[in-house]
Design a protein that fits this description.
Largest sheet: none
Shape: globular
Order of helices and strands: HHHHH
Structural class: mainly alpha
Radius of gyration: 15 Å
Strand content: under 5%
Oligomer: single chain
Distance between the termini: 16 Å
Number of helices: 5
């Protein structure tokens, strides 16, 4: 179980580092032109940058506390935070009538819930 949790955690870390980095460094108009990026025009450029920062920080929170053996309770808390982000993303995509993207966000949400439950419960890093 611990190996599976680490595998999923590293996958999610990569996904959120890439997604957050894109939001931080790519202009809103260019993001909007990407497949599935039409949502970007519904939000301000500042909000998108903040969302990118949250995703990058959440990705770091998934792995750094465990790797550094410090404040390991932050791992499942980071997962909960990213879960809220993905829940919001799924709602936005559903309202935009983009069910494929909404389902992808729900898939990521399911993986995040798996990590959060695993790290709060049976495979807790804190003891």
């Amino acid at each position: 179980m611990n190996i599976t949790l680490w595998t999923v955690t590293w996958l999610l870390t990569a996904v959120f580092l890439i997604a957050g980095g894109n939001k931080l460094f790519i202009p809103r108009e260019k993001l909007a032109r990407a497949p599935g990026g039409g949502w970007a025009l519904d939000f301000s450029a500042g909000f998108i940058k903040q969302l990118g920062a949250v995703e990058v920080l959440g990705a770091a929170g998934l792995v750094l506390p465990a790797l550094l053996a410090r404040a390991q309770l932050l791992v499942p808390l980071a997962a909960v935070g990213l879960g809220l982000v993905m829940g919001g993303a799924a709602v936005v995509e559903y309202r935009r009538r983009e069910p494929g993207h909404a389902l992808l966000n729900l898939f990521y949400l399911a993986l995040i819930v798996f990590v959060a439950v695993g790290r709060f419960g049976p495979e807790s890093l804190t003891g």
